[in-house]
Write a structure and sequence with these properties.
Length: 218
């Protein structure tokens, strides 16, 4: 059954908002500046462009191939929602407490990245931008897609998110000066709170799909 234009647009908006919150390119700005400290502004912008392009390709791969992978391993959508929700909730707690998430880059990885000439693939693209949280989100949405057009809408949404991510990293120096360290910490905590809401909703959706009789009132 084909989806209406209104439902496709709603799907696009929801996916863009959730993926943007999980990719969280604003919180990636300080890490990006730290791992590219030895590069010029022009080199950093080139690294940002490559990193966002590679991250987008990884996300598109899971949007397109994700449902087939789940089917091959006999993984139910509810299992993805529940386990993904738990993973996202752990990430959200780390963001709320202002800690670097274990699913992104560690301090050791950042120190190693500073010595690398090109950090666009790792740690920038994977796992900083296209990390486990983003991949789980793609698996959830792609498994619920009703057809090729729906998947194309999701790919378009991923493109919007990563273009925005590139623009934020492109102007990373300016953003760091405008927001300052305190402003960046506040933004990270707000994103963590929103991500916690999304994570809990994933778990609720997974539980109600397994046990339709369970009533969780709003």
């Amino acid at each position: 059954m084909t989806q209406s234009a209104a439902s496709l647009f709603e799907q696009l908006i929801v996916f863009v908002v959730q993926l943007f919150v999980i990719v969280d390119p604003l919180a990636a700005v300080p890490t990006f500046l730290a791992i590219t400290v030895a590069h010029s502004k022009q080199e950093r912008r080139a690294i940002a462009r490559r990193g966002c392009s590679i991250g987008l390709l990884a996300i598109v791969f899971f949007l397109v191939v994700g449902p087939s992978l789940l089917k091959y391993f006999a993984i139910n959508t509810s299992a993805v929602q529940i386990s993904g929700g738990l993973l996202l909730f752990v990430i959200a707690l780390e963001l709320l407490y202002g800690n670097p998430t274990g699913t992104q880059t560690s301090s050791k990885e950042e120190r190693l990245a500073e010595k690398k000439e090109d950090v666009s693939v790792t740690p920038l693209a994977i796992p900083l931008l296209a990390g486990p949280g983003a991949i789980v989100t793609c698996l959830v949405f792609s498994s619920q897609a009703s057809g090729a057009l729906s998947v194309l809408v999701l790919i378009g949404g991923a493109l919007i998110v990563f273009i925005t991510a590139y623009l934020l990293l492109h102007w990373a120096d300016e953003l760091a000066r405008v927001f300052g360290e305190l402003g960046m910490k506040v933004a990270v905590r707000i994103v963590g709170l929103i991500l916690a809401f999304i994570a809990v909703q994933y778990v609720i959706n997974g539980i109600t799909a397994i046990w339709p009789g369970v009533q969780i009132h709003s």
